[in-house]
Amino acid sequence: MAALPVRIDRTSPVPLYHQLAEQLEAAISGGVLKPGDAFENEVALADRLTLSRPTVRRAIAELVNQGLLVRRRGVGTTVANRMVHRRVELTSLYDDLVREGRTPRTELLSLQSDAIHEPAALALDLPADTPLVAMVRLRYAGDAPLAILRNWLPASIGAGLTPEGLCADGLYALLREQGIRPTVARQRIGARNATAAERRLLHTSKAEPLLTMTRSAYDSDGKPVEYGNHCYRADQYAVDVMVSER
């Protein structure tokens, strides 16, 4: 791998590890280092820059903590896949990918018009045995699988959805075309181990957890319009939250 040009100013009050971390981060953000690229060996980098190994190790740890680098046993340190950052606002994953300049692609795994799913029905304020429109989609960011999206809708809302539409656009965009506009949602974020089927679809290993999100969405009148139970590759997806002092 090519050695990155790094300039360390020992007269600066900025800590050496931070100088190094900033320049490495700029190389990743600027595309000099691309997702999947092998990263320069810690020992070689320390020798080349005449820095101590703890200093280099701390700089690399900063980037690992930011999700920019990934350490894998037997592979070494590599540049992480570009993450999708979802803000805490009512958008679809499709919208998030387009906003970040990514190319979303959807594979429809199943579409049912008479699915019985008690948790979804109750979330939609319907009797537990109410038939729902249910779908499972595999969402890609470019060529990389990113998320498995499971959604349930009341039959009156989901009846107009087609396989072609679900593969071509985001769910919320399709609902808006029908005059149905989700305006508020209740979400719960979590994490869990992936099933064998999910690992195959998302190309992950047993050691890699999934980020999960359940969502109940409502229109402006407070009527439930959609319930979702999604899982995401944790190395490619993050939720950004703005917090403030009470």
Task: Describe it.
With 246 residues, this protein is α+β, with helices and mostly antiparallel strands. Helix 1 (16-29) packs across helix 3 (53-65) and helix 2 (42-49) packs across helix 3. A hairpin with a 5-residue loop joins strand 8 and strand 9 (224-233). It is built from 9 helices and 10 strands. The protein has helices at 16-29, 42-49, 53-65, 93-99, 118-123, 155-158, 163-168, 171-177, 196-202, and strands at residues 69-72, 76-79, 84-87, 104-115, 132-141, 144-154, 184-192, 210-218, 224-233, 237-240. Strands 4-5-6-9-8-7 form a 6-stranded antiparallel β-sheet. The protein has a two-stranded antiparallel ribbon with strand order 1-2.
Q: What are the defining features of this structure?
A:
two-stranded antiparallel sheet, 10 strands, single chain, 9 helices, 246 residues, alpha+beta, six-stranded antiparallel beta sheet
